[in-house]
UniProtKB/TrEMBL annotation:
It is found in: Membrane. Keywords: Membrane, Transmembrane, Transmembrane helix. InterPro entries: ABC/ECF_trnsptr_transmembrane. The chain crosses the membrane at residues 20-37, 42-62, 68-85, 92-110. It comes from Gordonia alkanivorans CGMCC 6845. PANTHER family: PROTEIN ABCI12, CHLOROPLASTIC. Pfam families: CbiQ (PF02361). The lineage of its organism: Bacteria, Bacillati, Actinomycetota, Actinomycetes, Mycobacteriales. This is Cobalt ABC transporter. It is a multi-pass membrane protein. One of its GO terms (cellular component) is plasma membrane.
Length: 200
């Protein structure tokens, strides 16, 4: 089974970048896409930029597709919803921006160790410690958020494989309900693990 968002060792330019730089670059890129990508040509340019980032990270087309393929059914559901209430061009742009955002988060998790993520976040939030803010808890929350994106994509993939094994047709009721339940179970697991370590 392919585990999404798990660190892949490497010596590429993206691997060597400091985790803090990757976090900031990812956040800025997602923010810029959300604010500026409104047309299909703009979406095409953003797609080329993300594809170039995959190449810099040493992640080939096959691996990139393997990482994003589980997102397909979720995107199809969002696309159908948007087509009903807006139009197909707007639906393509929204789904495209969402897919590219997940792709950027996946690049960060594939090229950054979890410990390095936590260290970078704690250092960045360091000044807040002087006013009594638990920066270690914030760091864990942010790291878990980054990890949860590819994890939820993996959940969607597993639900879809279970649907195929049972010979069921795809549909919102078949896919959405199990994904929501799995997400809640995953959140409970995170909460129990953190509580067991005294991070309540």
């Amino acid at each position: 089974m392919n585990v999404l968002g798990v660190y892949r060792p490497g010596n590429t330019l993206v691997h060597r970048l400091p985790p803090g730089v990757k976090f900031v670059a990812m956040a800025v890129a997602i923010l810029v896409m959300s604010l500026t990508v409104r047309t299909l040509p703009a979406l095409g340019i953003a797609t080329l930029a993300v594809a170039a980032t995959f190449a810099l990270a040493g992640i080939g087309p096959v691996e990139a597709w393997r990482q994003l393929r589980p997102l397909l059914w979720m995107l199809l559901f969002i696309f159908a919803f948007q087509v009903i209430f807006t139009d197909w061009r707007r639906a393509v742009v929204i789904c495209g921006v969402l897919a590219l955002s997940v792709a950027l988060a996946t690049i960060v998790t594939l090229t950054t160790r979890t410990t390095d993520m936590l260290d970078a976040i704690v250092r960045g939030l360091g000044p807040l410690r002087h006013v009594g803010v638990r920066t270690d808890l914030i760091a864990i929350a942010l790291a878990l958020t980054i990890r949860a994106i590819p994890l939820m994509v993996e959940v969607v993939r597993e639900v879809d494989e279970a649907r195929k094994a049972r010979g069921l047709r795809p549909g919102p009721r078949i896919l959405v309900a199990p994904v929501v339940l799995a997400a809640l179970r995953t959140a409970d697991g995170f909460a129990d693990t953190l509580t067991a370590r005294g991070l309540d």
